[in-house]
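Input chain follows. Return structure tokens only.
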Amino acid sequence: MGNAEIITNAKKKLEQFLGFSFLSPLVIEISIPFYGFYKDNVVAIGYFGDYEYELERTLIHELAHFIQDKICKPKFPYLHMIIEGIPLLFGIGNGKLLRYYQFVEGFATWIDEEIMGYRGDEYWFSVPKYYFKVYYKGAEIFRKLGKKEAIEYGLTDREFCKDPQKYKLLRTISISN
């Protein structure tokens, strides 16, 4: 399967999971293998070779960031970054910066694991402490909620979303169509 098909499949799976469709961001290929990120309406994806499953999982994860950015517009806690940033790199701290990263990365990780399957304890217990604390523990927050509540929390949380009403408006429009 080519990358275009994998991108289309990842988008369809995410739309089906969320219950609404969306326009695609620009997807570009970068030279960093087995890596992806989302920034300003662009999903950048590294070279995955024959690892189509991992490419699709990464695309779903980054597209989840795109959706959260478009609907929720997460507010980065800049002031807290000054105080909490360095200790958090070593997995130390429980402040607002950690909660922000757990909200953003946990949402995307929870979605990619709901769609593509749980990565497994062996994987999660082998990653650096920072990744475990942010990605795994963040996804745990969403796992404890039901699917509907988790999606709503990820797209409407008052602590981190600039426009928590946008998702409710989107749901109203989707249901009425």
